[in-house]
Amino acid sequence: MADTSWMNNPKLRNIDPRKLTILLEIVKEAEGKPLDKLIPIIMNANKKLQEQSLNLTKDENEIMIDLLSKNLSPREKMQFEMIKKMMASRK
After folding, report:
1. How confident is the model over 38-67, as pLDDT tens digits?
2. Which of 16, 40, 56, 79 could form a disulfide with 61 if both were Cys (CB 3.0 to 4.6 A apart)?
3. pTM score, two decimals?
């Protein structure tokens, strides 16, 4: 069974239930997946959020990224950080 202790994070106290549902789906789908499988999952999650006119806050986004990257190898974490920086520079 997946660890859901992250849901107790105070930063998620007032999260929209629709966002929480999407975060739960992402975490479940991404569990144990390598970096190359995470990118499409993140893209799909962003699409779902946009379809519902939702956006993750900075805190919610950081929690999602932490959850998705916690089981990556050191090399994958480094690659993931590079991808995050590239995406941040596009905004």
Report:
1. 888 888 888 999 999 999 898 888 888 888
2. 56
3. 0.78
